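Lab notes, practical 5.
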Amino acid sequence: MRYSTESSMNGRQRLFAALNGEPSDHVPIWLLFPYHKTSYYADVKTLLAWREIHELSMKKAITLNRRNLQAPLFSPEVRITDQNFEEGAAQISRTSYEWRNVRLFSEIFRSPKETKVKKLLENEEDLEAFCSLPLARSSDIIPCLDSQLAQYKREFDEFPKELGSMMLDLGEPIAALYNNSNLEEFAIWSLSRNDLVESFLQKSMAYFRTVYSYCLERNLSDLYFMVGSELAAPPLVGIDTFRKWIVPFSAELTRMIHSKNCKVIQHFHGQVKNILPYFLEIGADALHTIEAPPIGNCTMSEAYAATGGRMTLIGNIQYDDFCRWDSAKIEAETLRLLEECRGKRFILSPTAGPYDPNPPETLLKNYKTFLETAWNHDWP
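Output from the prediction step:
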């Protein structure tokens, strides 16, 4: 049947129907637009260039208001300092970690001739030192979260709940290692220092249990966005490393979230095809995003065959394609994707959010085509 362009459900109802594997009046559409300003996306709500698309998204898409409550991972005993200085014509930015006999630093060196980046962890000695640093205790973490709570509650109250949901992104244990490591060494450590890394991840879970429990006990959100699984996955490391460094920790956090009747969207960019069974083991309600070749290695049909309707899949037109395709191609690809996913647990989405504060006209036109094509489709 063809639904009217009128709606019988709001964005929130459409979102949770999709996450529960239930039908909805229109295909659920998520553009990754936050409601409040973030550091990683353009502020589509206030920028004039985005106004028309933002207003259209409020009517026809789901809004997930992604927020981040954060606290330092390491104990206050670890002295972390940032320095910016000049050496001749070079600009240098340095971050140092100091504790007892441990001295670690990362550095970005910019000169007229070159830019050089030194990561905090460049060798096994650095890794051992980093993993020896004392982690923050609950008594360190909770006051830090308390200091952010009033601002979060203001945003919670301002967010129109009928649009979708607040969505908390609280991190996963692997991020601290990945973000601070020379990635060539990181890949080698997956073979040579697996036990040390696993031990660090296990210790780090005390921090994450505290942060997640804090939010869950206060009913701060109905939805959690788990970001980290892509950081230790093929082709950078092997499947067995993904199984050891990601699955048990993500699964435990997911169980915590589900124990409070909240939902989980697991985020992953890249070569997902051969690790889909492990996402079922993690137990998230939805997986974002499924990417077909040439960027990824898995079509939506292949992903549904592997997951068997046990989770909602989110995807999938590449953000860059919105910038370079014409509207006719966006319309055709949107319709093709909707037919491929008809009758399945699905949320339609670009692969990334709105980065450009001054978007090209092609991008804006294609967002509009994408939204209107999906909204008017005979779904499900």
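Observations recorded by the TA: The chain has two domains: 11-73+130-375, 79-120. DSSP finds 14 helices and eleven strands in the chain.
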